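Annotated sample (chain length 234).
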Amino acid sequence: MRISVIIPALNEEKNLGKTLDAILSSDYPNFEVIVSDNGSSDKTSEIAKSKGVKVVREERKGTLWAREAGRKIANGKTLAFLDADCLPESDWLSLGAKHFANREIVAVTGPYDYYDGPAFFRWFSLASQKYIYCPFNTLLRFFGRGMLIEGNTFIRASSLEAIGGFDTSITFYGDGTDTAKRLAAHGKIIFDNKLVLKTSARRFKTEGALKIIWLYIFFFFRTAFFRKTRVKKH
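Output written by the structure step:
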């Protein structure tokens, strides 16, 4: 099974090289990497090209615009999404890919490990995701919902196509929740505690942890239960 790894990036010249080196060291035998440059003014595209990966440019700002641009040129049966400041282990693709032998599964997600965050924050965040998110995702199935950590997600390409791709009207918060909500009608969404992905805590440092956590919670429930799902026409 071929996997297309899609990485949205906006002015990520400081981080992208390390992320690409990490994913290109994967032990999985059949994958491609696509960097979706979301209108960068720095050397993001040049760095991606120097690593020999595909590059697509999307000027319309927004993470989902970038992911959608990458999705449209991908040729993998499974799409893997990570961010430009992530450091996947060599077995990350293999761990995600194994779930798709089950045809009922449409998406798999896992916890973030904020590797450059303060020790307590790193530990507490990872433990919370493992022991709260996993059972919570199981509970959400009873309501026809699901949850995705969008920067650590594998999605069956045919299922994402069936729902019309990403809802690009969402600028940031609630993006994974909306995608999960629509995918849940097509199959199971799995939260795998072993599918850990290292990522930077830089946003928490610059914007404040409490503020970001509150926004994630607010937009999750708003999107999952109160926001009207946008239906795309093919």
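Annotation: The two ends are 26 Å apart (CA to CA).
Annotation: Residues 3-226 form a domain with the Spore Coat Polysaccharide Biosynthesis Protein SpsA; Chain A fold (CATH 3.90.550.10).
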